[in-house]
Amino acid sequence: MDNEFKSALKKIHQRRMQNGRMQPRIKMMDELSDSDNDGPELFTANPSDDIPRNKLVEQLARGLQAYVQRMQKRESFYAELTDCSHTVWIPAPREYSTLTFCNRRCYLLGGLNYETNNEVAQLKVTSEDSISWFNMQYSSNERIIGRCRHTSCSYNDKIYTFGGCFMFNMKRQIRECTGQLLCYDTIEKTQNIIKTKGISIQARKDHSAAVFGNSMVVFGGMFENGTVTNEMLNLDLHFNEWSRLYFKGVPQESFY
After folding, report:
1. Which letter, b or e, does each residue of 117-155 get, where b requires 16 or more Cβ atoms within 10 Å of its Cβ?
2. What is the pTM for the complete model shown?
3. Closest Cα partner for 84 from 131, 135, 134?
């Protein structure tokens, strides 16, 4: 009985779909953009062929399309790129470096080219289409080794660089990581290794870091042995003291 009932319903549905009444064509509203090149392609509602074409469907499609397009316009942003002219000296090409904004200048630190780099390059925007690079000579109480895959954050006219890795160690067959904390003073033109207090911090690379209040918060990364961590650390920038932060609820997944 159930099969016969389902078969009868199917036949009734097919007869309704085969009705000779003209099905209205759905006219989609024009895009909100005045120009086709004004931004990303806007959403267009195209109901499936399985949906009956009637006035209700037409109204729903037009309303949905208008709503989504308004959201696209509201949430979209555009970046205009300019190929700027520059001075004679420019930094060498590199990867895994950091570019940090501090005191109306940008500072390029570290990175990997043929070797890991320990230079500090300052970028100054002189006009809308012109920039100037300067190779900053700094003094240091200790030898600063070039590094890459680190993080750099600005705080009170200084740039704090944490972690990263050095050149590949042929003897150990590994790229050694570091847990050093460097501080570059943009006023005094000095860069030194900071002696920290608090808990012991394991060396890492490919982590994330950001300044919040008087602290630098570090999350994730990869240890020298290849382990990926979800550890969150806090460095008090007044006392140079490390502490560990803990998650509430479900632990976050590890990533780098």
Report:
1. bbbbbbbeeeeeeebbbeebebeeeeebbbbbbbbbbbb
2. 0.68
3. 131
* pLDDT for 168: 85
Residue type, 14: Q
CATH class of the domain at 98-245? mainly beta
Report H helices in 76-219.
none
Cα 51 to its chain centre, rounded Å, is: 41
Joined tokens for residue 165: 């890795």
CA distance 247 to 233: 11
What would the pLDDT profile of 40-63 be if each residue is shown by its tens digit?
A: 567 777 777 777 778 777 888 888
Both tokens of 164, joined, read 């990263």
pLDDT value at 23 more than 50: no
Nearest in space to 207 (alpha carbons), one of 147, 144, 125, 124: 147
| Sign of the C-alpha dihedral computed for residues 13, 15, 17 and 21 taken in this order | negative
For residue 207, how far is the Cα from the chain centroid?
Answer: 12
Q: Write down the residue that tokens 């950091």 correspond to.
A: 98
Q: Where are the domains of the chain?
A: 2-75, 98-245
CA distances 40 to 69, 71, 72, 252, Å, are 11, 12, 9, 34
Given a contact cutoff of 8 angstroms between Cβ atoms, the answer to whether 196 and 240 are in contact is yes
